[in-house]
Amino acid sequence: MQIQLASLNSGSNGNCYYIGNAAEAVLIDAGLSCRETEKRMRQLELDIKKVKAIFISHEHKDHISGAGVLSKKYQLPVYITRKTLRNCWPGIESHLVHSFTAEEKISMGTLIVTAFAKSHDANDPHSFIIQCGGTCIGVFTDIGHACKNVTRYFRQCHAVFLESNYDANMLANGNYPVHLQKRISGGKGHLSNTQALQLFCENKWEGLRLLILSHLSENNNTENLVQELFENHAGDTKIYVASRYSASPVFSIEATLPRRENISMIQMRLFG
Asked: 69: which DSSP letter?
């Protein structure tokens, strides 16, 4: 079955990822305001009424700041772990709060969302895969290192949002204080370009049709750097770099399609 996916925004200023099919959809994280989420979905011609739930990866503001207003306006259930909820104040109405645990499969119509634990400097961080029929999409950002869970699920995916947060040289030679550099690169922060590339090269498989590089640092990375680095190793996998300033195109993918050309961009323009 065909799945549509898009980054509404990706970066420390707000993260929100759309995954859906013809009947239903989910949002992974809600780090944009309700108004901006609505605006970007309209620009991409995505119907917000198809969204059945919001899934929260962890409590950092850039992943949760819009969850309260968005869920209230559209009465969307918000799936969030108990530990995460205890360590934030997202303003979600109590009847919309649903907890989840690692490895639990949650059905939203024909979409099945599975969370798994990862390494990040948050209280109970998780990443997600979303399955529909035989197609599997991964959302793997805010990863301190590529743990066994990350590599295991990466090998199942036909498309992945993968963090490629910083260039190690730019971070080391930039103006960030040492303690912040250590937080970012210390194993519970973010993946560097080199670490993300290693994860991709060691775990990609012939079914991986699309890689969307995500959560790039504003000060310690560039889109061109990441695009060039990964294109040199892409093979048959399509590479796209998500922006921190605008939505991506809407991509359409299904597992049964054997060739790279069968990934379509439903929307070709990038929107500001």
From this structure: H
